[in-house]
Write a structure and sequence with these properties.
single chain; alpha/beta; 9 strands; binds S-adenosylmethionine; 9-stranded mixed sheet; 18% strand; Rossmann fold
């Protein structure tokens, strides 16, 4: 499925072992803002830490968050492994590639990590490129000339909040999916309509505290209702009664291994609009 994409990549510019399909100039300011947030949130890691993620020193300030991410990663890996067929996979907004490389390590998966974040992409390529069936691409998913129907699976892990128009993103991704393709949304909050205003206020306060007020305009709060036209399957719902119970039990018994607080949704490529 990705033959056309591979041909395109082989003709494109390569820097730091990352393929460039977009010109960075229009994105530089936003990228710089994002980089400063990542630094202030302790989300920039040395190579030797990225190599092991989601495992991280239990004393790291984000250790519990990474444990929750390990929980959702394991669910996704089990799901993909059970599909038992050759899969071309796009990890959109792959950042430093920590998740892309776990997906690429599954037999029969060919993974492409795509982002607009040059520093983290360069790090991903540096740390993981010894691994086969794994490529990193600098591109804006909306405007880059990505060939249609390229991917069987598109993963959006902690990414949707950076896109203002979620339905537009999903429609674009559906066009990049093979006819039987799937889009998976995980590790992001999805709000009930009544929760959005308060969440927006919290976000503004949070970035104001970091003295990066402009970042609040890059962060978007989506409701699950926004996705209703795409008829998503909810593969994990942390608000379901049994999961709430399991969450509570785990927090009590093994607090260092929290379950993911975020839903996991699957959206099919082949719904026409
Ligand atoms: C919070 S990070 C998530 C990183 C990674 N998926 C993870 O799970 O840790 C969100 C990423 O989305 C990327 N992003 C935002 N808009 C994008 C666009 N239009 N095209 C490609 N990537 C984009 C950002 O650069 C950022 O690296």
């Amino acid at each position: 499925m990705v033959a056309e994409l591979d041909a395109l990549l082989s003709r494109s510019e390569r820097r730091d072992n990352v393929y460039y399909l977009s010109d960075p100039a229009p994105y530089e300011e936003k990228e710089d803002r994002y980089f400063r947030v990542r630094a202030r949130e302790s989300r920039l890691y040395p190579d030797e830490v990225v190599r092991l993620l989601p495992e991280i020193n239990s004393r790291h300030v984000l250790a519990r968050e990474w444990a929750a991410r390990a929980d959702s990663l394991n669910r996704l890996l089990n799901y993909v492994a059970r599909l038992q067929r050759g899969l071309d996979l796009l990890d959109l907004g792959c950042g430093n590639g920590w998740m892309t490389r776990h997906l690429a390590a599954l037999p029969n998966v060919r993974a492409y990590g795509l982002d607009l974040n040059r520093r983290e992409l360069a790090q991903a390529a540096r740390v993981f490129l010894g691994q086969p069936r794994l490529k990193f691409i600098y591109a804006d998913v909306f405007t880059a000339p990505l060939p249609p129907r390229s991917f069987h699976l598109i993963v959006l892990a902690s990414v949707i909040q950076y896109f203002p128009d979620l339905p537009a993103l999903i429609r674009r991704l559906q066009s990049l999916c093979a006819p039987d393709g799937e889009i998976h949304v995980l590790d992001s909050p999805l709000y009930a309509p009544g929760e959005v205003a308060a969440a927006r206020r919290r976000t503004r306060d949070y970035y104001a505290k970091l003295r990066l007020e402009a970042m609040a305009d890059d962060y978007h709060h989506h409701t699950i209702q926004t996705l209703t036209p795409f008829q998503p399957d909810v593969l994990y719902d942390p608000r379901a009664p049994l999961n709430r119970l399991a969450h509570w039990w785990q927090a009590l018994m093994i607090p260092e291994r929290p379950r993911s607080p975020f839903p996991w949704l699957r959206i099919a490529a082949a719904i026409s609009h």
